[in-house]
Design brief:
20 helices; globular; alpha+beta; Alpha-D-Glucose-1,6-Bisphosphate, Chain A, domain 4; Arc Repressor Mutant, subunit A; 4-stranded mixed sheet
């Protein structure tokens, strides 16, 4: 069963996928092959859905496929509404962008992440449960707790040699005792908070959908009456669960760090400073928080990256020696052709500490095998994880390159059109030339508007060889 959803532009689906894919421990929001998959439990029936991008940033369209189950009309409408809610399709970013035009920080960040819409939880309960899980622990441990909870108590479905999980219902969790959660490394107090919450909801004593009546402060006042819900949790649920874009979790450590860093404070901003600075964004304070979180995460990842181990290999191929680098996250560089070794070495030196650059043992076997299959004509698509290193715009371009089919080509203008602005052709060309993962991210498939084989970082003869190899196989 297939249908289409049309978000209000601008909307960059790739940024939503990046957010949903921020942890390998995430158990319910799955991203595979540039598509979103989620298992929903609706009226005691399980439905696995897949969402993919069909349009562009300025003309967005999402393809919704129901892969399993046979929903009735009510279930079908609920599935569609849940997907639309997750991707915030009705949000119009235009007024927000205009409102922060005079803010030097947000003006820069919104340009970096143009079309990024906050991803919401499918239910308010899930936002509240996730907020409680994440209290006073780092994000990695919070994902571990969520992973354990979902796999222990969520419904599961096997599909296409994979297992998918639905987030547990309040009714399922209400029957637990704290010891069942402490065995999963929940603190006893956090277990009590979560179980107490689910019991109140499952008995109908607390109707989350009916709480938002009038001023958001009234909702916060209602939420904080419950054990385990303070103002930070309430503000977070208001933002992620209710989609209230003016709700700012001012006590959030990540947000305080971001505002301290970008607004020139001496260290972490206080909660009062967050509220004072954000008053200039009234009406959009929560929305601005998402952008600040996203930029701060990107910057922190860049700092951490230098400390990662990077595993290097060499493959003898029809193109000559191919130099390959990967981290535990995925492949990060494939270089070859003219100046391939020099470019490879300088790129590694720029992005990693020298002591962390090591010769691969078995770490790159999957990459090597798939490249060999490609050159033998046995593989037309790669199934690899990436550790992309580049600017937000460059990453958007590289992800668009992945949509060009084997044996086909696209022009710089066509890629620019996909990104929502035909005037970006030159910028697309520059990003294309900076692609660090040759062959697998197929920058060789991008040509000039009139069909000419314009510049290629490894040398035009190698671009021609790759295109000829692919055309000979189809």
């Amino acid at each position: 069963m297939v249908s289409w959803i049309y978000p209000k532009p601008p909307f960059d689906f790739q940024y939503s996928l990046d957010y949903l894919n921020r942890s390998k421990m995430e158990p319910v929001d799955r991203v595979k092959n540039n598509q979103y998959l989620r298992l929903f439990l609706i009226k005691d029936s399980l439905f696995l859905v897949r969402v993919s991008e069909e349009g562009s940033v300025h003309s967005p369209c999402l393809k919704l496929e129901i892969l399993t189950g046979n929903p009735d009309s009510e279930q079908y409408n609920q599935i569609t509404a849940l997907v639309a809610r997750i991707f915030n399709v009705d949000l119009d970013l235009t007024d927000f962008y205009q409102a922060v035009e005079q803010d030097r920080v947000l003006k820069r960040i919104t340009k970096n992440y143009f079309g990024f819409k906050p991803v919401l939880t499918p239910t308010i309960f899930e936002a509240l449960a996730w907020a409680i899980i994440g209290q006073q622990v780092n994000l990695n441990f919070a994902f571990q707790l969520k992973n354990s909870l979902v796999k222990e108590f969520g419904e599961k479905l096997e599909y296409d040699s994979d297992v998918f999980y639905a987030f547990p219902s309040p009714e399922k969790l209400a029957d637990l005792n704290p010891e069942q959660l402490t065995r999963l490394k929940f603190s006893h107090r956090k277990a009590e908070y979560l179980i107490g919450l689910t019991r109140k909801i499952s008995k109908g004593n607390w109707k989350l959908n009916e709480l938002l009546q009038g001023d958001p402060e009234q909702l916060i006042a209602s939420l904080v009456q419950f054990n385990g819900v303070g103002r930070w949790t309430a503000e977070y649920v208001l933002l992620k669960g209710y989609g209230c874009l003016d709700s700012i979790p001012a006590a959030d450590i990540g947000l305080r760090n971001a505002i301290g860093k970008y607004y020139g404070l001496k260290g972490q901003a206080s909660e009062e400073e967050v509220r004072e600075i954000s008053s200039a964004w009234k009406g959009y304070r929560g929305l601005a928080s998402f952008y600040l979180w996203r930029q701060f995460q990107e910057d922190m990842e860049a700092e951490k990256r230098k400390k990662k181990k990077v595993y290097c290999s060499v493959l003898n191929s029809p193109l000559g020696e191919i130099y390959i680098a990967s981290t535990d996250q995925g492949v990060c560089n494939i270089s070859f052709g003219e100046g391939g070794k020099e470019n490879f070495d300088s790129w590694l030196a720029k992005n990693f500490l020298a002591e962390n650059i090591v010769k691969a043992e078995n770490e790159n076997n999957k990459i090597l095998r798939q490249l060999e299959e490609y050159f033998q004509g046995e593989r037309t698509e790669f199934a690899l994880d990436f550790d992309l290193i580049g600017t937000p715009f460059q990453k958007r371009v590289w992800k668009q390159l992945l949509t060009i089919p084997y044996g086909s080509t696209a022009s710089y203008k066509e890629i620019a059109d996909k990104l929502g602005n035909s005037n970006l052709s030159r910028a697309v060309g520059l990003a294309n030339s900076k692609n660090p993962i040759g062959i697998v991210i197929p920058c060789h498939r991008v040509i000039g508007t009139s069909g000419e084989l314009v510049g290629y970082a490894g040398g035009l003869q190698y671009k021609r060889m790759l295109l000829d190899l692919e055309r000979a196989r189809i």
